[in-house]
Amino acid sequence: MSSSVITRFAPSPTGFLHIGGGRTALFNWAYAKNRGGKMLLRIEDTDRERSTPEAVDAILDGLTWLGLDWDGEAVSQYARASRHREVAEILLAKGHAYRCYCSPEELQAMREKAEAEKRPVRYDGTWRDRDPATAPAGVKPVIRFKSPQQGETVIEDHAQGRVVFQNKELDDLIILRSDGNPTYNLSVVVDDHDMGVTHIIRGVDHLTNAARQTQIYKAMGWHVPEMTHVPLIHGPDGAKLSKRHGALGVEAYRAMGYLPAAMRNYLARLGWSHGDDEIFSTEQMVDWFGLDAIGKSPSRFDFVKLENLNGHYMRGTPDAELLAAFITFLPHVAGGPEMLGRIDAGMKAKLLRAMPGLKERAKTLVDLMKSAQFLFAERPLTLDDKARQIMADGGVAALTALLPVLEATEWNVQSVEAAVKAHAEATGAKLGKLAQPLRAALTGTSTSPGIFDVLDVLGRAESLNRIADALKSG
Q1: DSSP structure string for 113-138
Q2: Residue 55, CA atoms < 13 Å, CB-side half-sphere
Q3: Residues 370, 374, 379, 384, CA torsion sign
Q4: What is the pLDDT of residues 21-35, one digit of tens each?
Q5: How far is the CA of 83 from the CAs of 87, 172, 191, in angstroms?
Q6: Exposed site from 37, 52, 77, 366, fewest CB < 10 Å?
Q7: Which UniProt keywords apply (predicted)?
């Protein structure tokens, strides 16, 4: 395997790590791992008004939660501005850039003229070949890149195929603003070159930038990295992914109770495939991952699929591991910190014992949290409406008859189950007619893990006391 592959993930810290960014990071990470290379992290923090330390922390936290590591320290793009300016000066010296003294009023007139003539709005090259000696006094110029006007710029893209841009369609973009601040397209090229990036994997919305950036690489005589522009993620309805679809920050998925391994599996399948495989481990994904298996078409985000996949992962996770994930999850969800504060060694043992039953129906850690509430409930329990109805509809009578049987039974799953079933047979009652009021009395709700598991985990004293409480209040 080649160790020369270097990818990079380069988010802008203007908010949380959104789900599309998470997928881009995953693809860069998986490809670097597959090729025995490195994934670097660059924070594109040149927008000083919108870039915040909190957003940087959120991005790092989101990547860490997803289980995606990077090589070396995260690089700040803003900290490298002097290097970007240096390259702008080199382009000037080489004749690949020029100073433009157009005023905002002139640029506005240019824009209006193009709109009136129904032409695309672009800079008309006013200062491209003018003598700077004719520049107006007191005007701070911008520096523009001298884009080739003839021929074409070609991107050989792993996902999009051969993409051809006519050079006459690309105007002379600003690479250095009048205040001396470099612009995005210049900064990206300089950083990717200096960091030794060999493969750029990013969203298809950067495809036009790829053409402009390729021209800058060539003007500097630098090697152009291989490009892969990944299709966008759409909502289930085919429209561009928005917040109503699930275009949330990665931290929102953590709070919704998804497991990182399930998220990696799900995100990998949004735009990349390996035959018909839907469920695979992270190790398999890394082994299989290749850029040419990334599709051209947008993929659709589907919460139902994600939930089902997460449920599969939860059932397949060893109980002790799932308990650890559950405890790690609690600080990030409403009501979780309070629950966490009550988890001592005894409660951990109860949760671990209950885990097989708890995880059987749960699709998320939020579901698991709801199912586990009965373990944390304090006597006397407050019964919800459905549980109260069950008690009123014959539940009190059924439990009054059952309680002495339970009191006389040896306390383990098999003995308790045998005793309840024998009682049901002896009284001609259906098992459900006993299980329902038992569930109501023991958990305060009408849903729970298997009732015999509940009795076992709560233990003899707590179970009998909860039943007695329910009979008193009933």
Answers
A1: HHHHTT-------TTTSS-GGGPPTT
A2: 17
A3: positive
A4: 999 999 999 999 999
A5: 6, 21, 9
A6: 52
A7: Ligase
Segments of the chain with pLDDT less than 50: 1-2
Which residue pairs, CB below 8 angstroms and at least 24 apart, start in 83-88?
83/190, 83/194, 84/176, 84/182, 84/186, 84/187, 84/190, 85/176, 85/180, 85/182, 87/186, 87/189, 87/190, 87/220, 88/143, 88/175, 88/176, 88/182, 88/186
Report the distance separating Cα 126 and Cα 124, nearest Å: 6
Give this prediction's pTM. Answer: 0.92
Domain co-membership, 349 together with 415 = no
Q: List the one residue out of 354, 424, 373 whose CA is nearest residue 438.
A: 424
Which domain covers residue 124, as residue numbers? 79-186
The token duo for 320 is: 């002790």
Domain presence at residue 67: yes
Place of tokens 């949760």: 351
Residues 247 and 295 in one domain: yes
To the query of whether residue 350 is one of the catalytic residues in this protein, the response is: no
Identify the active-site residue in 243, 296, 421, 472. 243
* Integer Cα distance of 249 and 380 in angstroms: 40
> What is each CA distance from 398 to 381, 411, 444, in whole angstroms?
19, 20, 16
Same domain, 167 and 99: yes
Of the candidates 300, 345, 423, the one whose C-alpha atom is nearest the C-alpha of residue 435 is 423
Q: Give the pLDDT confidence score for residue 244 in this predicted structure.
A: 65
Q: Is residue 306 part of a domain?
A: no
pLDDT of 348: 97
The pLDDT of residue 83 is 98
